[in-house]
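Researcher: We're teaching a course module on how sequence relates to structure. For the next exercise, students receive a sequence and then see the predicted structure as tokens, so they can try to spot secondary structure elements on their own. Here is the exercise chain.
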Amino acid sequence: RIGLLSNPLLLFAIVASVLAQLAFIYVPVLQWIFKTEPLTVEEWVRVSLLSLTVVLVVEIDKWLRRRREHA
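Model: And here is the predicted structure for the students to work with:
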């Protein structure tokens, strides 16, 4: 297994991507350029739950594959 901190360039890219997305949503001039609106708390909850669902499915798949390999 490879640790998250073993690739600092990937970690930087993830942080930069998240910051850019937040800027596109909340910085007024970027809102105007990209035609975006701030998300409400309810929308953030929906997005977070949907994202966690994807992570959960991937982790279950990995667990099942490892279990089959050791059987």
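Model: If you want an answer key for the exercise: DSSP finds three helices and no strands in the chain. Residues 1-38 form one domain.
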